[in-house]
Design brief:
This protein is mainly α. It has helices at about 5-40, 50-85, 85-90, 95-115. About 80% of the residues lie in helices and about 0% in strands.
């Protein structure tokens, strides 16, 4: 502790800091000139479409799965409302509607399960 804060050690560190500050002061006008020149000519940002492709593919797969889930939920709700509604009006259609609704819901459920398991997701 004493050697670190000894007057000789502090003087050495201060001399090094002074040298660094002097070099920075000498380079500062050139650095500022380059910054101003860059700002005057404008900045350009380049991005490669190849970097965005995996992200776009994931967003498309997620969107497809969300839409399929909403359609399956609407089918289940709609068939349930129709079959639970007016028994005289929909009584003879109850079983065919249930079959169609369950078949469509099952198909969409299978699609959702399949796309969630596959590494590549769904096809476009």
């Amino acid at each position: 502790m004493f050697s670190r804060f000894a007057p000789q050690a502090l003087a050495t560190r201060m001399a090094a800091a002074g040298t660094d500050a002097a070099e920075l002061a000498a380079d500062l006008p050139d650095i500022l000139r380059r910054v101003v020149d860059t700002l005057d000519t404008g900045l350009e940002v380049h991005s490669r479409a190849a970097e965005l492709e995996p992200l776009v593919g994931r967003v498309e797969r997620i969107g497809n799965r969300l839409i399929a889930g909403m359609i399956a939920a609407a089918l289940i709700g709609g068939v349930g409302a129709l079959t639970a509604g007016d028994k005289e009006r929909w009584g003879k259609w109850e079983k065919p509607l249930m079959r169609a609704g369950l078949g469509a819901g099952g198909a969409l459920g299978a699609y959702l399960a399949w796309t969630s398991r596959r590494p590549g997701g769904s096809h476009r």
